[in-house]
Amino acid sequence: MKRLWACVVILVLLITICTYGTVETKKVSEQMAQTIESARQAAQAGDLEKAQKLSEKAADDWHNYHEVLCTFMPHAQLEAIDQTLSGLPMLCYFEGMDQFGADCDRGITQIMYLNEAQLPTLENIF
């Protein structure tokens, strides 16, 4: 009987951790995508200072979330996003607007893919 209770406790613990990981990933990905999109829109409007500040904020926020996300996700995917976001402020500073917009789109796509890959769907399970 003790083994059964131990199994139930472990199962509840695993479900709780997985749910927390999914919710946290969704929250982070939505927030990061919004910040990057705002930076891209500011750059398109010609407000390079605001675009640079937003891209720096996105990179800083990503570094803050990185520790939590490492618990739930493969590091290779996180590093690819880290590399994309780290280059955004300098692209904006040196006025590489075409590349800045492309990297913003790439960053948003990578983050959304990361979010989709963590959802417990049949495609992801099997």
Automatic annotation (TrEMBL):
Q: Which InterPro entries would you find in this protein's record?
A: DUF4363
Q: Name one Pfam family in it.
A: DUF4363
Q: Which domain of life is it from?
A: Bacteria
This one is known as DUF4363 family protein
Give the source species. Answer: Caproiciproducens faecalis
